[in-house]
Amino acid sequence: MKLLEDRIKKDGQVIGTDVLKVDNFLNHQVDPDLMADLGKEFYRRFSNEPITKILTVESSGIAPAIATAMEFHKPLVFARKHKSLTLKDHLYTATVYSFTKKTSNEIAISRKFLSADDNVLIIDDFLANGQAVEGLMEIIAQAGATLSGVGIVIEKTFQKGRKLLDDKHVRVESLARISAFEDGHVIFAPED
Ligand code: G4P
Predict the structure, then answer these.
(1) Which amino acids does the record list as binding xanthine (predicted)?
(2) What is the CATH number of the domain that holds 167?
(3) Could you tell me if residue 176 is inside a domain?
């Protein structure tokens, strides 16, 4: 998606050899107009699927996921990483290991928000090692729901997440695909 690639070139900051900082428009300060465009693009790509729920993990997946949910006019459910006063029982849970942060998080969704009748579209900000998506897929399986596809804002093709999902025959649509960072510059791979 050219608009997104241009924004990454303009505002993304390469950190070391494998991390892109996008806190100016995606995961700290959020550009609402860009989110609306991302939501429309995910809708265009997945509108042939009978989606009933959009699913993501807090926190950085929520902005693109709500924009997508607004296009589909279907609910967004986000997995929580922390138990809250009101989220205690009747949960689907999965453990997600973050290679970036070297920590494990339990993610949880209330059973009342996902059922065997649901066709789910997962939306997330980054696809790196694929652990977050794998955790959400585990929860979808627990609910007996159907996974219709995965929409990713920024995929890093040099990490193992995409292969993991391709091997499971999951439909993945990434709006920007990064194949490498070279001398502080982003090298884009062809779009899906
Ligand atoms: P995964 O997202 O494919 O599971 O891979 P990984 O375990 O490596 O990612 C762990 C966390 O780091 C995720 O956020 C993911 O979105 C984020 N991340 C991965 N690569 C990059 C990158 O290049 N730039 C930035 N800015 N973030 C990256 P999280 O732990 O779920 O945190 P949150 O921000 O959603 O709360």
Answers:
(1) 20, 27, 156
(2) 3.40.50.2020
(3) yes
